[in-house]
Each structure stands twice: as C-alpha cells, then as structure tokens.
Amino acid sequence: MSLVNFTPPQFRAVVVAALVLALAALAFGAGWTAQGWRKDREIADIKEAIATDRAQAAERAASDMQSAALAMRTSADDVRRSSANLKASMAAITKELKNAPALPADCKPDAVRVRGLRDAYDAARRSAAGQ
User: Fold this and answer.
1) Domain ranges of the chain
2) 90: Cβ–Cβ under 8 A, 6 or more apart, which residues?
C-alpha cells in the first residue's frame, strides 16, 4: 500500500522522480538555512570584534588626550611661573639701570653696571628662547 502502488505503471517513474526531487529540495533548503545561521553567527562575531577594537581605540585616544591635556596644563603653569619671575627680574634690572649714575663719555663701565647689563642680556635671551 505505498503511493507507488496507487499510480499507474507509466507514471511511477515520474512520481518517484518527483519524490526524489522534493526530498532533494527539502534537504537543500535545510542546508541553506543552517548555512545562513552559521554565517549570521560569523557576521555577528566579526561585528562584535570590530566594536571591541573601536572601543579600545577610543579608550586609548581618550587616555592620550588626557595625558596631552595634563602636559599642556603643566607647561602653561611653568610658563606662568617663569613669566612672573622674568617680569620681576626685568623690573629689578630696569630699576637698577635707571638708578645707576651716568657715565662720562671716556669712562669704562664699572662691574655693577656690567653685571646689570649682562643680567638684562641674559633675561632677554631667556625670554626669546621661551624659558
């Protein structure tokens, strides 16, 4: 009592071929679906790896930015301190030069005046060098 027994003998080959074709199509569809699930999982794993790499890169960039900001802050503080010291030095030298007695045309400068000029020269060089 099989399906083949109910069909006329001239169509039995067609029915068997149709059944084989239907089973092959069903197997192909199941394989296609299983392959799709596997590839979907691989794609999800790749996307997760990319997201992890991007997050780590962002964390490194934020850390580098924080380090650079701290270095800039330290440098700015150093510039402010040296600027205040330089202004005080320049004011003292200017005052010293203003209060120094005038020299006659044929006279050589004394050690105090030479030291004051040398200090002014050194302060100007430090200022130009950004120290």
Assistant:
1) 3-129
2) 120, 123, 127
